[in-house]
Amino acid sequence: MLTKEDIEKFKDRLLKEKLQILSDVLGEELALKYFFSQVEGDIADRAQDLYENQVLASLSGLQRETIDKINEALRRIEEGTYGKCASCGADIEIERLEAIPYAILCSACSKKEEKIKPVKGL
User: Fold this and answer.
1) Other C-beta atoms within 10 Å of 21: how many?
2) Domain 4-116 classified CATH 3.40.50.10070?
3) pLDDT in tens, 42-83
């Protein structure tokens, strides 16, 4: 089971990875402005969502997929479900989270899913 310190460490790592991807695409100055903007209110929230959609549209497929996974992991941290397997509910191994901090499946469920997926091109 993850401690509060573990969760904070993973949250920090996820945020840094997200910032790095945004910096690669937007440049460091724009990424920092986007990343650390502190807007409040409904209209500002909608404007921020629109801007985020524009930023995400400029990302490559892999970058966009990674940002989506990071955002999902951050959402799970806020909900208190981070580190739990989305399939069986067991704790995801800390070694797996260290390798893939946005993992949603434990090793056993991930292996099962890989066996079920059809091979592309066949």
Assistant:
1) 19
2) no
3) 555 555 555 666 666 666 778 888 989 999 999 999 999 999
In this prediction, residue 54 carries a pLDDT of 64
pLDDT at 38: 44
Residue 95 tokens read as 């070694």
Q: Please give the structure tokens belonging to residue 114.
A: 């890989």
Give long-range contacts, CB 8 A cutoff, 24+ apart: 64-72.
66/17, 66/21, 66/102, 67/18, 67/21, 67/22, 69/102, 70/14, 70/17, 70/18, 70/102, 71/18, 72/102, 72/104
Measured torsion, CA atoms of residues 117, 84, 12, 58, in degrees rounded to the nearest 10: 30
Please give the structure tokens belonging to residue 121. Answer: 């091109």
Q: Is the pTM of this model over 0.85?
A: no
- Helix, strand or coil for residue 86? coil
What residue spans define the domains of the chain? 4-116
Q: Report how far residue 102's alpha carbon sits from residue 66's, in angstroms, rounded to the nearest whole number.
A: 9
